[in-house]
Fold:
Amino acid sequence: MSLLEVKNLQVSFATPEGEVHAVNGIDFAVSTGETLAIVGESGSGKSQLVMAIMGLLAQNGRASGQALFKGEDLLQKTPRELNKVRGSQIAMIFQDPMTSLNPYLTVEQQMTEVVMYHQKLGRHEAFEHAVEMLRAVRIPDAEERIHEYPHEYSGGMRQRVMIAMSLLCEPDLLIADEPTTALDVTVQAQITYLIGELRKKTRMAMILITHDLAVVAGISDRILVMYAGQMVESGTVEDIFYRAHHPYTRGLLASVPRLDRDASDDLQAIPGNPPNLLALPGGCCFRDRCTQAQEICSQPPPMWRDERGHRSRCVLEMPDGRVENDSAGEAGSAAEESAP
Amino acid sequence: MKQTGLGHHFASRLLSLVPTLLMLITIAFFLIRVAPGGPFDTEKPLPQEIRANLDAKYHLDEPLLQQYFRYMGQIVTLDFGPSYQYKDWTVNELIASGFPASLAIGGTAMLLAFVMGTLIGVIAAIRQNTAVDYSIMGMAMMGISIPNFVVAPLLILVLAVYAGWLPAGGWEWSFRHMLLPVITLALPVIAYIARLTRGSMIEVLHSNYIRTARAKGLPERIVLGRHAMKPALLPVISYMGPATAGLITGSVVIERIYSIPGLGSYFVQGALNRDYTLVMGVVIFYGVIIILMNFIVDMLYAWLNPKIRFDEG
Structure:
């Protein structure tokens, strides 16, 4: 059984302008020890997807579908029940370490409360444990600096604190929502390396959300590409990087700046903007920006799948792939693939 | 990491008190004397000799600048001089007689307003855009907009005259006598603090660090009490400084309606009677209290907000 199995997840927001469909039927599964990267540009719904799983949607947000964590549907749980899972079994780190730590509490207060609440540790044990975690993420003078406030830490160090804090209860699943986006490039590499290293030690599963394909390659097992709240392609790192099928994925890969190209070459970009989530067009949601769009793209595109589990939602034929029935009932096939 | 920042900050705040007060005293001194009329002007003019004697006794015959320096020399010894209108009373005695009642009523009202206001504000914030929120905010709007000279007679009418539970007025050091004036004073402040708290709490609840606290699986009482309360209270604290100064120095309307021997009426009476020394006395007293309250607010701010301690100097 997978650790987390998401089936036909939909997220929408009620706004004065109408219903915004942020996530439109996503299926995936994550097994123990596995890293799934969810890739997409801003507004593709990748953050809202995990917010829904964590029960952290804004007040006007509604989630439907299923998110089975160890067989229990997180979407059906009350906040009180969710609190037994959040922070202890599923932990999350956020994009902006500058604002994600409480500026009014010391690092010690923010770290110890997690274990004191979830594991009922005493103040002293909680402190020892927190210092130990800070050392693990290489905060110098951890037993001194733990008494400081977040504003006395640099951005990279704050993200290290966030990571240390998320790992306090040894979670089974870590959700990292763009953990390196707000950091300097050199710090990005350190944090990425640190996350990979800690993960190897703990056999913890991870969902890594990013728009940066460069971050993905080194540390993920599988990649899910999202566009306009839908999965457009998913597969292993090799599938996505070497056998990308969907025009959007290929566009993303082509737009990564490369050092081996002449500096005078223009950066490759995908023209246009993502569709308006208030009124999604029928058919393929990428067709307005697609260089290979055809008339048939105004019909819902088929979902291709090959025997390794590489899937893509496009009319273009996938080599060795066959079309799977994309009705809601069977949309969970990505989840089934990792089931025994 | 300069822990000295805090001490230095408050020492300099204390020093800045002196020029502020000096300016306040100077402006008040000359302003009240610029106002037409004087303390001994009556409808029927006094005989020349009596008027001259009075002016001489109170040094009003001296040049203005000389009076000013005489007054400054006098208040350095904390002596505000005799009142011109309340015969046989010094200004010090008047303030000492009026302040306790005003302080008791105003202080209790402020305490009540803080507790009730923040509580109601937080409830409205966590029930944002529900019927609870709308009715609380509707009542708060009423609390702010209905003047106390309307609220007070209504309260008296219902609770004192019809129900007969409480005295309609008069002053004794008892809970029963203080209740109505305290409620009347507190109502608009409760409403204002509730609105302030609601607004800042909603803002705080949308911040990233509250999302982090929720993601950590902390129960709602810890998220609110430990993570959200401090930052949500900051605007309330800064409002409470001057508001407390206003409340504890008395309200003319409340004191009139409930017949309370407080400080508030001296502000109006002193100014109307051109009772120079009384006006100066209450103005300085009020100024000192305002400065003191702002000083306390500053200290609370530094205590609540760790960033302030280090951004100084």
